[in-house]
Amino acid sequence: MPIYEFKCNKCGKPFSLQMTISEYDTTKSFVCPHCKSKSVKRVFSSFTAVTSKKS
User: Fold this and answer.
1) pLDDT in tens, 2-46
2) Structural domains counted in the chain
3) 15 lies in a domain?
4) Contacts 24+ apart (CB under 8 A), 3-8
5) What DSSP designation does 20 have?
6) Residue 29 is part of which domain span?
């Protein structure tokens, strides 16, 4: 299940939510768990892809 990362535009604190892709697609707005603001921005985190081939 994916973890979506957000940053609140009001308090500036980052937070993450774990939900299915369909839950994310159907959710209209997200709420900051710290200040309850609906003014949040999704941020994209970095990731590492592991493959069996050596580079």
Assistant:
1) 999 999 999 999 999 999 999 999 998 999 999 999 999 999 987
2) 1
3) yes
4) 4/42, 5/42, 5/43, 5/44, 5/45, 6/30, 6/32, 6/40, 6/41, 6/42, 6/43, 7/40, 7/41, 7/43, 8/32, 8/34, 8/35, 8/37, 8/39, 8/40
5) -
6) 3-43
